[in-house]
From TrEMBL:
A GO molecular-function descriptor: cytokine receptor activity
Organism: Cercocebus atys
Stored InterPro entries: FN3_dom, FN3_sf, Hematopoietin_rcpt_Gp130_CS, Ig-like_fold, IgC2-like_lig-bd, Type1_Cytokine_Rcpt_Type2
Pfam families cross-referenced by the UniProt entry: fn3, Lep_receptor_Ig
Compartment(s): Membrane
Family as reported in the entry's similarity comment: Belongs to the type I cytokine receptor family. Type 2 subfamily.
Protein name (database record): Interleukin 12 receptor subunit beta 2
GO cellular component terms given for this protein: plasma membrane
Keyword set, alphabetical order: Disulfide bond, Glycoprotein, Membrane, Receptor, Repeat, Signal, Transmembrane, Transmembrane helix
Topological category with respect to the lipid bilayer: Single-pass type I membrane protein
Signal peptide interval: 1-23
Length: 620
């Protein structure tokens, strides 16, 4: 007994082409456009397009002054100087493509000559039957297909290996739900055997073409609150499903729409975001198969006015008795808050006592520095602007962030959490705890000397928190100066500590640059270890010394590391004895190799420049 099933695909049915929407082309008064072999072609076919001018319709009687240009939609694809133009076009997509021929004359706008639409489709699907053979005997096979209005088709296969028959007929959608029945019969000298009849409808075996010519239109250029998606479809389609997502997302939003007629409104898109759109079609609400997804449309939504407020922080630095430097810093708005490309920031500085705006500045950077008087009460406001407007300004009062000792957090610690993060913990102020509104943890790379160009980082923490994990711009083997501020409404207190995410012993020791004698003691001066060789936060310096040519263990003095320190005295050395001295540095991971060696000899009451030959010092 043979088992039968059917296979048939419907592509574009040319008899329904007239249902497609046609583009309007002006009447061809100046010339003609011809398309060969036809304006209706199969997918993958090549067409020849010709454009010719009618008599006395060119720029001048001289053909070389006539420049004919062929456009595919609004894209120029060919041109030629003369009275005619010929172009061969391949690779046209399914659906309708508009070609327009224009004439360009010197010192004048292009003139439209004529145009043509070319419609691309696929052959109608032929209905075919396949079956599974259950025996090694290969008798002749007869396949019978019956349909509505008592129509019957029959075809015989005499091939010994036959398991497929193409009827060479087309099923039309005149009655989409009409039943068709297929039956396969095998005949030999012993008799015949037939399969069970297989019944199906037009909708069971037909898949529509995927939609094409997808485009999107935003109702207002300044808003994405409503936009409309347009597409073109086969005329028999009753149901569409749309899916869309931001280009950087894996999750699709899905919408089913009935009788959409090639358009649907979307209401939930985000501003200034690139989206991907795809559409699929179905011929019946409940029966049949979905088409393949259409080609992807990618489009970016328009900008909207920024929302949210900037996170602003600042530093103060005294210049002299009457002036101070204020450096403002702020973080970029998130993409969802910026809602467009931020073009600039507006900074307003105001003296509150007089109520007068002193400075307004526009900058493209995320920091701004100015010099103001040390007297008076100052406030700043900072806002971000894109092409549609500005965010609400962030307003802060400038105060001495470490002035209130009673508000200073205590027991501040900084411990490595990973290669690129540090856990900072602290205890609340011992007094005025209820006045704390928030904590700010600030960190920047430790850089002895001028640190005005070192980036500043910070994060805010609510008043009930006593820890923060810092990871922004944290690198291993680098020391950071970390401050924890406790802020009330009009004052602040702070504590600081050094911390690193990973450390090892320094790569070198300090370089001694001078030794001087001062009233029986020695003052040693050195150059700091280069930042890139410190390999973390330095904890101590060690100064070693011993008598020259002595085999005894050296004596040492260990001093705590301080950023600004570069000299230290040593007492109790014997006069007129030559010593050798060197230095090392320590992190929590270990001690560096020694730095350079220097010799010195204490002269008692005399003062001499040290580091020279000891015999010269003796005779000084």
């Amino acid at each position: 007994m043979a088992h039968t099933f059917r296979r048939c695909s419907l592509a574009l049915i040319f008899i329904t082409m007239w249902l497609l929407i046609k583009a309007k082309i002006d009447e061809c008064k100046r010339g003609d456009v011809t398309v060969k072999p036809s304006r209706v072609i199969l997918l993958g076919s090549t067409v020849n397009i010709s454009c010719s001018l009618k008599p006395r319709q060119g720029c001048s009687p001289y053909s070389r002054r006539n420049k004919l240009i062929l456009y595919k939609f609004d894209r120029r694809i060919n041109f030629h100087h003369g009275h005619s133009l010929n172009a061969q076009v391949t690779g046209l997509p399914l659906g309708t493509t508009l070609f327009v021929c224009k004439l360009a004359c010197i010192n004048s706008d292009e003139i439209q000559i004529c145009g043509a639409e070319i419609l691309v489709g696929k052959n109608k699907g032929n209905c075919a039957a396949t079956w599974e053979k259950r025996t090694q005997v290969h008798p002749p096979i007869t396949t019978e297909l019956s349909g509505p209005k008592n129509l019957t088709w029959q075809k015989q296969c005499k091939d010994h290996y036959c398991d497929y028959l193409d009827f060479g007929i087309n099923l039309t959608p005149e009655s989409p739900e009409s039943n068709f029945t297929a039956k396969v019969t095998a005949v030999n000298s012993l008799g015949s055997s037939s399969s069970f009849p297989s019944t199906f409808t037009f909708l069971d075996i037909v898949r529509p073409l995927p939609p094409w010519d997808i485009r999107i239109k935003f109702q207002k250029a300044s808003s994405v609150s409503r936009c409309t998606l347009y597409w073109r479809d086969e005329g028999l389609v009753l149901l569409n499903r749309l899916r869309y997502r931001p280009s950087n997302s894996r999750l699709w939003n899905m919408v089913n729409v009935t009788e959409a007629r090639g358009r649907h409104d979307l209401l939930d898109l985000k501003p200034f975001t690139e989206y991907e759109f795809q559409i699929s079609s179905k011929l019946h609400l409940y029966k049949g198969s979905w088409s393949d997804w259409s080609e992807t449309l990618r489009a970016q939504t328009p900008e909207e006015e920024p929302t949210g407020m900037l996170d602003v922080w600042y530093m103060k630095r005294h210049i002299d008795y009457s002036r101070q430097q204020i450096s403002l810093f702020w973080k970029n708005l998130s993409v969802s808050e910026a809602r467009g490309k931020i073009l600039h920031y507006q900074v307003t500085l105001q003296e509150l006592t007089g109520g007068k705006v002193m400075t307004q500045n526009i900058t493209g950077h995320t920091s701004w520095t100015t010099v103001i008087s040390r007297t008076g009460n100052w406030a700043v406001a900072v806002s971000a602007a894109n092409s549609k407007g500005s965010s609400l300004p962030t307003r802060i009062n400038i105060m001495n962030l470490c002035e209130a000792g009673l508000l200073a957090p205590h027991q501040v610690s900084a411990n490595s959490e990973s290669m690129d993060s540090i856990l900072v913990t602290w205890q609340p102020p011992r007094k005025d705890l209820s006045a704390v509104q928030e904590y700010v943890v600030e960190w920047r790379q430790l850089h002895p000397g001028d640190d005005t160009q070192i980036p500043l980082n910070w994060l805010r923490s609510p008043s009930y928190n006593v820890s923060a994990l810092i990871s922004e711009n944290i690198k291993p083997y680098t020391c950071y100066e970390i401050r924890v501020y406790a802020l009330s409404e009009d004052q602040g207190g702070c504590s600081s500590i050094l911390g690193n995410s990973k450390h090892k012993a320094p790569l070198s020791g300090p370089h001694i640059n001078a030794i001087t004698e001062e009233k029986g003691s020695i003052l040693i001066s050195w150059n700091s270890i280069p930042v890139q060789e410190q390999m973390g936060c330095l904890l101590h310096y060690r100064i070693y010394w011993k008598e020259r040519d002595s085999n005894s263990q050296p004596q040492l003095c260990e001093i705590p590391y301080r950023v600004s320190q570069n000299s230290h005295p040593i007492n109790g050395l014997q006069p007129r004895v030559t010593y050798v001295l060197w230095m090392t540095a320590l992190t929590a991971a270990g001690e560096s190799s020694q730095g350079n060696e220097r010799e010195f000899c204490l002269q008692g009451e005399d003062t001499a420049a040290l580091g020279q030959a000891p015999d010269r010092l003796v005779h000084a």
